[in-house]
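tool_call predict_complex ligand=pyridoxal-5'-phosphate
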Amino acid sequence: MAVQLSRTFELFERAMRVVPGGIYGHQTPALLVPGSYPYFFARGDGSHVWDVDGNEYIDYLCSYGPIVVGHCHPAVEEAVLRQMRDGNCFNAPTPLWIELAEHLVELTPFADWAVFAKNGSDVCTWAVEVARAATGRRKVVKAAGAYHGTHAWCSPLPAGITDEDRANVLEVPWNDLSALTALVTSESSAIAAIILTPFRHDAFHDSELPVDGYLAGVRRLCDQHGIVFILDDVRAGFRLHLGGSGEYFGVRPDLACYCKAIANGYALSACVGREAFRNAAQDVFFTGSYFTSGVPMAAALACLRTLAAEDGIARMDALGRRLCEGLDRAARAHDLRVTTSGPPALPFMSFADDPGQSLNRVFCAAMAERGIYLHPHHNWFMSAAHTEADIDRTVDRAEQAFKIVAAER
Ligand SMILES: Cc1ncc(COP(=O)(O)O)c(C=O)c1O
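tool_result ok
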């Protein structure tokens, strides 16, 4: 099915001349089937986006997470415009700095304070440093393959990184409490922090929920050995529970990192923490030219209040379930076996016996050509702006795309 993408390719050619790789990082087109996906977008409204060639898509990537109440939600945009008229960036914060910190502390049962930055990477790295300052220890334990950002200690690719950058990082398999217990027992006097995402959402992999007792076991180990438990909730935060994904899975960390959905697309990240770490949080130098900007904070307050007022969390859960059930049904009608994984608000689908996810590339490309934006190797995101009609249309298009996959198999 031909899709008109001439403007996308024209712009990409221009970008390649002046930007290394054209578009880099997680939005690189290298992971997508060329000719099926747009590389540049022009606008968004609710659950729909339009590319630079005028093609319309139902958006299941939500900008890789940030858009949680829908593109251009009026409550968020009004709050943004109001603050923009007064100014964004000053010599000191606006009062929104306090209002938002108070709001996060109120929402999060274990938290007594909050700090703000711009990216998930900023707060994940800072949380590790706070754990080191609090414990006087050096090492950090993470799950193998888990993504915590672009900084040298955890960047997924080796270019530009030295062995020394990784010297204090220990890795264990996700969901393996015995391996973690063995590591902690042998190294406990050196371990400052265990940092985990609330569920496994590695790219190129089905999502995996924590098995019964895993996160509680992590909590217990941290308590027994004086280790700081950091929940990296950058990707899932505010999609599963307003009090953080720890509440959804029944665990309370010491520090939790947020970004993505906190401000519906405006640049902001946050770390919240317990009283016991307030002094360490004060000691670790943390700043950035835009950390105190008012506009993203106005957006965050409006976004979090809208999520609560519209019962967005329950909505995303219900819509995600409807999507997964529909895809599963449509696949079976073509004699295909698919796995839907992850919490319904951050769903993912892959094909059985498709280790390189090459069938998923065919499927997602066919969906993009039919106006449904999915990623073949990265979990998807629901927003509170998706509708039942969006899901039903998606399942209808999936029936056509599964037919193509069945023919290629
Ligand atoms: C779990 C997790 N941690 C950290 C990050 C890094 O966030 P950022 O890209 O805002 O630096 C991401 C980004 O995708 C993430 O998913």
